[in-house]
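Input chain follows. Return structure tokens only.
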Amino acid sequence: MRGSKSKPSGNTFAWATKCRHRSRRSEGGGVAAAILAAVEGGILPPGQNAGLLGDLQIAGRFRACGSLFPPGRMPGSTAGETPAATSQTRGPRVCRADTWKSSALANERLTDLLHASYKSRNTRLMRIQIKRILCLILLPLLSDPVSLNGAGAQTGSDGWKPLFDGKSFEGWRGYRTKAMPARGWKVEDGILKKVGAEHGGDIITEQTFDNFELSWEWRIGPGGNNGIKYLVTEDRPSAPGHEYQMIDDKANEDGKLGPKHATASFYDVLPPASDEPLKPAGEWNSSRVLIQGNHVEHWLNGKKVLEYELGSDVVKAAVAKSKFRNAPGFGTKLKGHIMLTDHHDECWFRNIRIRELPSQ
């Protein structure tokens, strides 16, 4: 440390501590060097250097150690200033044995200050790191309300993945086309909207599914009509898939045609339970379709309102009485797309997600 004119690179605390350890092997000059290092490195709080130097000056014994501080380098002095200690009669550059007790006292105080400062710095750094981590977690959620609803997330550990990211039509296209319709559909505030005044056509997922659980939220305007179709094929445009009906049961004329046209029905084939918990037009409903093997379930606002078996005699008989009776294979199992229908009425969708299931 003697004659060093510049602060070494690296961690200042480690440097000052190294000086302190060296002072144990040498004499009081090592402590003085450690004090200087700590002051220059910003480790010691303002005013602490005076107390430490006072320990070295006990009983006037600092005289022999003062020469270890170059002029202007004693803590608290300015460049070019010769401290009083160094203006005294210069003795050997090693403290006399009778100064060791004072040196040890300063060494002990320096150790306490260094550890206190280090602990304080670590505490502040930890708090800063925690705040940074919280910002990284919360900022995307606060800046993107869709994330709060779960849309846009990756496939979770439970297998759910979004079909709509809340920002774009990624993963969707027009039925029997390679692109999204130029009109009729838009994304607003993280919600997929069917624009009532514009006819753009039905849209489908690019991916196909056979065993899955589909979940979504929706609302429809007064008198509105829409639906989600599943097991959709592009080879049968007259009856592309099975429709989960979404309609204003009380105000839409089609909804008044009977229970097979009511919300949550297998449209025109099988009716839902008579006590379906449908919310009024304009309010959000939550729906779910589960298909595993040939078993199908329709859920509405947390209640299972319909279940049936694909290809069963019951379904075949019901299809034979429906508008789909001439559609080959309708009512049987196949791997198909998910479709959002365009019925010319305003409808809003959000939190559309799917979880693929193993076949039974």
